[in-house]
């Protein structure tokens, strides 16, 4: 019998609406249902305005649904307070963003240590852990550099080291190659595959490009706020 893997993400009948300035509401997610198990590499893809970013914000505990249930590591976080959501984010999720979100006047080492500071770890542990992560992404010789002194690909590797510093089981990557050229973008995507295959880290990647989604093992396609495909990566995107 095949052993079932740990369920990390579970979205059950998720709906999301936003209030309009002139009154009323606009619904952007409709009855979203899917699970993500430990060790998966999932791409959530959709055109601009499809609702994929709103879905990402809910997965990342950056926003809450209007209705439905979101479970993270088996805990229903739907009704969490903002402080409780912040704790869940910091303890369980590593984030990688399109624009890197690095502090430009702080060193590479300081940037990687940032999530560890929020956890209250002693300075010596922060430094040791940050250096370990920089070595993992091949930037151990650049710890004293400022982000402005690095290439785009190097900045994104610093962001990945920062995401890994808290030892998360889940990395949420939002258009991680959007600010990179194709060569650097491919290098980052290959690195994500390595993290997934060799370290078993679960990756959920948001993208609007099929060529990027193909690096994942599973595709969830959203259009007009609804899932219209969930399965293995198809040979092409003609039917999405």
Describe the structure in your own words.
This protein has helices at residues 52-59, 82-92, 108-118, 123-136, 152-165, 182-199, 210-213, and strands at 7-19, 25-37, 41-45, 67-72, 75-76, 93-96, 170-174, 202-207, 218-223, 226-232. Helix content is 33%, strand content 28%. It has 240 residues and is an alpha/beta fold. The chain has a single domain (7-20, 29-231), classed as P-loop containing nucleotide triphosphate hydrolases (Rossmann fold), CATH 3.40.50.300. Helix 3 crosses helix 4 and helix 4 (123-136) crosses helix 5 (152-165). The protein is built from 7 helices and 10 strands.
So, CATH architecture?
Answer: 3-Layer(aba) Sandwich
Structural class: alpha/beta
Main sheet characteristics: 6 strands, mixed
Principal-axes shape call: globular
How would you name the CATH homologous superfamily?
A: P-loop containing nucleotide triphosphate hydrolases
Please, how many helices?
7
User: What distance separates the N and C termini?
Assistant: 34 Å
Q: What is the radius of gyration?
A: 18 Å
Spell the H/E element sequence: EEEHEEHEHHHEHEHEE
Strand fraction equals: 25-35%
- Average residue-wise pLDDT: 91
Pick out its properties.
240 residues, four-stranded antiparallel β-sheet, single chain, alpha/beta, six-stranded mixed β-sheet, Rossmann fold, 33% helix
What's the SSE blueprint?
Layout: E1 7-19, E2 25-37, E3 41-45, H1 52-59, E4 67-72, E5 75-76, H2 82-92, E6 93-96, H3 108-118, H4 123-136, H5 152-165, E7 170-174, H6 182-199, E8 202-207, H7 210-213, E9 218-223, E10 226-232
Helix pairs in contact: 3-4, 3-5, 4-5, 5-6
